[in-house]
Amino acid sequence: MSSENEYKLSVVLLVYNTEDLLEECLDSLVNQTLDDMEIICVNDESKDNSLNILKRYAKKYDNIKIIDQKNTGGATAGNNGLKMAKGEYITILDSDDVVVEDAYEKLYNKAKETDSDIVSGKPFKYVGKYQTQLGTRQDMWDKERTVDIHKDLEIFYDVFYWNKIYRREFVEKNDIYMIPGKLYADAPMIFKAFLKAEKITYIEDFVYYWRHRSVNESITKSLTNLKNTEDRLDNYYVLKEYFKDDPKLGNQVIKLYLERFIYPIRGILDNPIFKEAYLKDLRKILLDIDDVVDNEFTNMKYVLYSYLVINDKISILEDVLKNYEDVKDFFVYNGKSYWNLKYFRNPVIGIPDEVFEIRNLHRNFINIHDIGIRNDNFYIDLSIPPTLKMEAARMRFNGLTQKYGSKDDNSYIFDLNVSEGNRFDIELPLEKLVNINFYDIYLEVVYGGKREIFRLGLNNFVDEIDKDMLAEENKARIFLTSNDNLSIVNTKVDSLLNMDLDENRFKIIPNIEEINYKVGFGYGKESYDVYFKRLPIENTDKFTNELEMKWKYSLEKNRTYRMFVKINHEKYLLSSKSFVNYEDQEIDYEGGKIRLFKDENDHLYLRWEYE
User: Cα 59 to the chain's mean position, in Å?
Assistant: First the structure.
């Protein structure tokens, strides 16, 4: 490296009261496969043990540096770290998140290969200990490409600073820093960077796991906090200034970004302290946007809300938000579909038809007519407004995937059958979901040159349903999560496991790397259950997918145990079909015999017979 660039990459880590998660974040940084990297940790006067954790890591790793500053907010903390950086490229991340092990190597190598000012990789949301989809638009990262900001407007959905690396010389030359004091400092920084960059590259790889935490435990500010709301709306004027030399592009991007200004409206209208000021400032912004109601970039809810705010129809807005926001009805006329609220074509109210026009698919308008499991098959019958021209429609099952797992390896996508009027169906053998797991159920559609993914749930059903949609016992079950989203748990997977037994132990080797289940056996109370242990990878803190149980201390004499898999808190009995190489077994052990056998229902049992 040149004397000016002392490292390939400088990582600026923003730290504020994250002691419970900081070590996991730091571990993901110090174990990066990219060499020649510095880690600049900016502690923004944490009140917990975060600083001591940083100091402990800094003693162990000489590429970790600490800035311990008075509390000035994340934007100033980030800028201070960036200005200390000596890397050829730089990046910023939050200290409660996780970076994929080879993320920076992939981003840096692609930056060097393409001579890019910015390289962006795919993020995922981290809820609890599992990954999930982040937003409906993931198509930005569908293929590696160099983007054109005038043609590839979808990149302006990608307002995160933490899934990208930036050429340091480019950042310094164009003053690409966060605005001090701003709570929502990410979007202005990213938009300015996009506008100034000569070359931006997107890659397909997963690089970053953003941790979703509740407001109570996160530094995330309340959506109805006055300062928060003012800051959110102030971004409009910042972004407008950035686009002053290209107002046409600016107006398109602002319309795409419109949701960010309107998103907190429900909570704010319930709060009389903020309501008047918010609506006044929001109306001023909406009036300043050209053709704001003629908006192909956002969902039609926000188009309607914009119209109602502009025309001071606040009582109607409040009524819609309170009573009609989830209405599924639509009306088809002259080749167009409209949201069929009670205010549509109401001559007294006089709202133009185009305000209700459905130009983009919204979750409200995905109708599930039937769903279930029969004869070891998952089936679904659904429809969407017939005037939306679909290029493709697919059923997507996203399996629960733990940290550092590959999401693609645990997701399954199947084309839906298409019939007239945008009606879709599929009957899918459960064995096609080739892993024992919980799966979130999505509809994936391609239309208008974009790919969107929608989580299906209770509000998509045309008719009332029985929430206890139990399916074929001990094979699969469709259910509603606590958020009323649809998921399926599948244990109907044949030939998934291999067994290897000898006089000392019972080993199980899954033929898929990603396992989110436990294998065990028991005979009564849960406290009597015994679980196979995952075998460690030698000289590391990681584990293989191989499971092992030693006979010693595991079995009681003359006790019969049922074998099962456990996913989260639920147990499902194992059958002989679960194994590639199942055979009944009889093993001599300490004067008795350990038997592995199946019953008339093909359920598996272990027994240590001793006379």
Answer: 34
Strand pairing category for 64-68 and 37-43: parallel
Query: How confident is the model over 76-102, as a mean pLDDT?
Result: 92
The fraction of the chain above a pLDDT of 90, given in percent, is 54
**CB count, 10 Å around CB of 490?**
27
Residue 329 counted as domain residue: yes
In whole angstroms, what is the distance from residue 111 CA to residue 118 CA?
7
Q: Which of 461, 490, 519 is the last residue of a domain?
A: 490
- Residue 16 tokens read as 């504020």
Q: Which phi and psi (to 5°) does residue 456 adopt?
A: -85, 150
Domain extent at residue 271: 226-356
Q: Are strands 592-598 and 604-609 parallel, antiparallel or unpaired?
A: antiparallel
Angle at Cα 23 formed by Cα 129 and Cα 56, nearest 5°? 170
CA gap 517, 497 in Å, rounded: 12
Tell me the two tokens of residue 205.
Answer: 């790889």
Tens of pLDDT, residue by residue over 559-577, are: 999 999 888 777 888 999 9
d(CA 16, CA 73): 9
Q: Looking at residue 256, what is its pLDDT? A: 87
Assess whether 82 and 12 both reside in one domain: yes
Number of domains in the chain: 4
The pLDDT tens digits of the residues spanning 149-198 come to 998 888 888 888 999 999 999 999 999 998 888 888 888 999 999 999 99
Where does 469-516 have alpha helices with state H? none
1 in a structural domain:
no
Rounded to 5 degrees, φ, ψ at 568 are: 55, -115
CATH of the domain at 184: 3.90.550.10
| C-beta of residue 10 within 8 angstroms of C-beta of residue 4 | no
Residues composing the chain: 611
SS3 for 280-300, per residue? HHHHHHHHHCCCCCCCCCCCH
Token reading at 431: 């064995």
Lookup result for tokens 């939050």:
94
Angle between helices 300-310 and 272-288 (to 10 degrees): 100
Confidence bin at 288 (pLDDT 50/70/90): very high
Predicted confidence at residue 405, as pLDDT, reads 46
